[in-house]
Design goal:
By secondary structure, the chain is mainly α. The protein has 2 domains: 33 residues; 110 residues, Four Helix Bundle (Hemerythrin (Met), subunit A) (Up-down Bundle). The chain is 85% helix and 0% strand. The protein is built from 5 helices and no strands. α3 packs antiparallel against α4. The chain is flat, with a radius of gyration of 27 Å. 3% of the residues are buried.
């Protein structure tokens, strides 16, 4: 008689396949959640690398919230101008005066966003020790280099 035709053996094979499927599912979920980055997880890792005290963490969190509240409308305007710019590019004939106006506006917004970032950076550095400032500068440069792919 064939091995798989016995009910007892068939049940064992089904059980083993079920266990293998569940183990694979759990492995995939664990691998995905471990690799997945969250803003809070990244922030806590950043704080750990800087060895911040609780009061320093509060300063960083408060300043970041202020920075975001100031820059969020600027990012929204930037995106809005980019949409209008793309619309202008698709129109034939292209009006270079309007395109120049939009690109100039984008440049001004980008400059303001960068100035706000520098202000934020200067403010949070004030609450750091000299050693922490060096680590902060190093981590910030690493982050910027990763963003631009260098």
């Amino acid at each position: 008689m064939n091995f798989f035709l016995k009910q007892k053996n068939l049940l064992w094979v089904i059980a083993l396949l079920l266990i293998a499927n569940v183990a694979t599912f759990i492995g995939v979920v664990i691998a995905y959640t471990d690799k997945e980055s969250s803003p809070e997880k990244d922030r806590n890792l950043f704080f750990k690398k800087l060895e911040l005290t609780e009061s320093q963490k509060k300063v960083f969190i408060a300043r970041k919230a202020l920075f975001r509240s100031i820059n969020e409308p600027l990012y929204d305007r930037y995106d809005s101008i980019m949409i209008r710019l793309q619309h202008q590019v698709s129109i034939t004939p292209t009006d270079t005066a309007i395109i120049r106006k939009y690109t100039d506006s984008l440049g001004l917004l980008n400059a303001q966003i960068r100035r706000n970032w520098i202000s934020y950076s200067i403010e949070v550095r004030r609450c750091l020790s000299k050693e922490q400032q060096l680590r902060y500068d190093k981590l910030t440069l690493e982050h910027l280099k990763c963003k631009i792919g260098k």
